[in-house]
Amino acid sequence: MLCGGIDIGGTKIEARLFDATGADLHKTRRVPTPRDAFAPMAEALADQVRWLEATGGGRFPIGLSVAGIIDPTTGESFAANIPATGRSIPDGVEALTGRRLPIVNDCMAFAYSEAHGGAGDGARSVMGLILGTGVGGGLCIDGHLPHRHAGLAVEIGHLGAPARALERHGLPLRACGCGRLGCMEVYISGTGLANLSEWTLGRRLSGEQLSDSTDPEAAATLDIWADIAGECLDTIQIMLDPDCIVIGGGVSNLPGIAAMLTDSLARHRLGKARLPRITTPRHGDSSGARGAALIARDAWPET
Ligand SMILES: [Zn+2]
Asked: SS3 string of the chain?
């Protein structure tokens, strides 16, 4: 049996085909996300479903992943960059295709993907921490996604950064996109790394530019970033205590990041708590689609 995943992002909707074990069959189709209204977006999703069925030759499990929150009670989505807020995406797709597809938050899909044949293979609880434009998280326990009361993923990026960390480095409280001050993602996302370089070096540098630089100030900026990210990992350990933390997103490409973050967590952890395994992902950019495909496979037949 095949399985397919459709990853709904703010700029593109990507369909990917996998075999029953989750191996990528390298059949992928990307279309721009219609940004103005729900109806054309639902039509674009239905078209991706038809493309997957035509490419795979029949009816097989297909799942959806979305960069947003899905209320488990109402099925409604809340998404900043997708015209689906207050609407049910599965309802829209079902009206056009007659199929009721499972839907999952993209960070939860990432955690599910890495827990099943990914970097978290063999671990009972796997936390996926995505450090990209923002910070998102997902959790998979004993192979399953835990029920979330309000449909939140692990929204750790919007916890306040610890005052002790900001004071240690003389950093200001800066506004977050969520409307509050001093959220973790303002400091530890890819954007946050550029924010830090602006404060320390007076110019915005990406993580890649910082790690390539021979300027000792650039290395010091990365140290500050790793220090605050270690505080975030400490919070994850205290709250969720996962066996394995898989770091995803653009920042996960920094050389030596797993060791850097393990060292930082070792300094910040509570007492001598046993450290989780911190690692980089196996499935990278396909994680949203792959996680959704495997969730659909494991929930087959569709209801
Ligand atoms: Zn925030």
From this structure: CEEEEEEECCCEEEEEEEECCCCEEEEEEEEECCCCCHHHHHHHHHHHHHHHHHHHCCCCCEEEEECCEECCCCCCEECCCCCCECCCHHHHHHHHHCCCCCEEEHHHHHHHHHHCCCCCCCCCEEEEEEECCCEEEEEEECCECCCCCCCCCCCHHHCECCHHHHHHHCCCCCECCCCCECECHHHHCHHHHHHHHHHHHCCCCCHHHHHHCCCHHHHHHHHHHHHHHHHHHHHHHHHCCCCEEEEECHHHHCCCHHHHHHHHHHHHCCCCCCCCEEECCCCHHHHHHHHHHHHHHHHCCCC
